[in-house]
Amino acid sequence: MFREIALLVVRVYRFFRKPKNENYVATEKSKALNERLIWEQIPKLPTVKVKWVIDGDTVIVIKGRKEITIRLDSIDCPEDGQEWGDIATYALIKLIGGKNVKIEEHGYDDYGRVLATIYIWSEYKKKKDWLNVNERMVVLGHAWVMRMFYDHLPFDRQDKLNRLEGWARSRRMGLWQKEDPTPPWFWRKNKD
């Protein structure tokens, strides 16, 4: 029941959200820290509260007193109306919905959204550590790695994303259960 209500609320929000600002210019992404250094810096990153999960790779957060739309960096989830889109949205709601998270900001996209890697504190089987949400969406099979948009990441982080996607594909996790799932960038082109 909760899942159906959450997905209905997401659809209503999408219907009323603002269209793309044609005059907005994306910023060049800032270079990200390598895998070892970022784990040392996570506690110092800004903490925000997730207010709304729009879809599998977009959320609205509260930073201070301001609402900010965040696009999960370097990944792309199925769209609303696309096969697996609702499941990816629900997975992100389960991971971070309503929670405090840390964000590593990388710049802005063409829509004015902050491009960020999101981290959440995870306590699983007595193991406590930071969880990279972007990577988690990939390993669970809810997202593709966007290789043409991850050049700001150091090689070790690019390689890790590629290996996680390869693992999800080989284990037929999530959207990879289907023989040849359609990536969202092709689905958007064919929809128009």
Keywords:
alpha+beta; 5-stranded mixed barrel; 8 strands; 192 residues; OB fold (Dihydrolipoamide Acetyltransferase, E2P); globular; 27% strand; two-stranded antiparallel ribbon
Trace the largest sheet across and list its strands.
1-2-3-6-5
Number of strands: 8
* Shape, principal axes of CA atoms: globular
Cα-to-Cα separation, first versus last residue: 32 Å
Helix content: 25-40%
Model regions low in confidence, pLDDT < 50 over at least 5 residues: 18-24
CATH-defined architecture: Beta Barrel
Give the class from helix and strand content and strand pairing: alpha+beta
Strand content: 25-35%
Q: What is the H/E string? A: HHEEEEHEEEHEHH
Query: Taking all residues together, what is the mean pLDDT?
Result: 89
Walkthrough of the structure:
The protein has helices at 2-16, 35-41, 85-96, 133-139, 155-170, 184-191; strands at residues 47-55, 58-63, 66-72, 75-76, 100-108, 114-124, 127-132, 144-145. By secondary structure, the protein is an alpha+beta fold. It has a single domain (2-191), classed as OB fold (Dihydrolipoamide Acetyltransferase, E2P), CATH 2.40.50.90. 34% of the residues are buried. The model is unreliable at 18-24 (pLDDT under 50).
